What does this fold into?
Amino acid sequence: MTVIFKGDFETGDLFQFGEVFGNPQVIIEAAKNGSYGARCVTTGIGSEASLERVGVYKKVPARRFYYAQCMMKLNQDLIADGNRVTVISMRGGTGPAGSCGFKKVGSVLRWYITKASMQYASSGPIVGQWHYVELYQDDATGGGLKLYIDGVEVLTQAEAAGGFLDGVIWGAITNVNYAVSVDIDDCVISDTYIGMEPPKPKLTIASSPELNVPVYVDEKFVGNTPIAMELPSGTHTVRVEDEVVR
Amino acid sequence: MRYLFTQWENGSPNPVRTLTIDQNLTIMANYKLATKRITFDSQPVKVQAVIAGQTVNAEQSIDLPEGSVVTVTVPRRG
It folds into this structure.
């Protein structure tokens, strides 16, 4: 895999990206990994005729196909059927190419992809939960779009007309007339499938009897027993208090 | 009540341990209640006492949880 671009907001600002739409906020509360993520909150001026955009854009060399991924979390449910939010939009020249997001259909949130037409998956984002969202587009005749959610291909669409791709927008592009909040982190563009990070091993520490003992991992206080945490593979030190008063 | 670390689940007696983590792992820190040794005696006759519900002979010792409040009962007549 060749990572062509990675924007993780760890600089604490939006300077990793070339262009900004609306007013995305780089904040600690929007981070999935590391210290920062971007919270994209729309102001409610969207409509199907004039979508509101709050997000970031990265221009890349023009080519036929790309994979674009981000971590995304929807912070509250959409209100009405027809309300939709595009999370990743591929660009070709001055206009949109293919895109993906989610929409309220039959009172249920459902993932979608769209270029020639909008197609829906049977599932959608879970409010408050982070998801891996990855869009593949081959903008050549005979190519197509694929949407992967949390490492699973959920939608595919054939490509009708040829073209090229030269940029990606991540954020909240929406038709709703109220505030919608979406957090994004770890934006990636690649020339091959990106997928999910492998799960980190989990360490669980308990005491017997259970005394809520303070625990230090790599000399940093992490909490009291019983506690479970993901740690990078490798060597770690674990220390518990040698005396506890209860 | 005061508790003292005794050992990890692998028998290591040091409350600091080094782990190589490459898969899910559960570890257990074991503690014991800190105790104090109480020795009972009686003079001039040797009687039995009941201390914290245990019968104790004169000149015998028992271990009780540190900081605990216990009742000691001895016979009215020796």
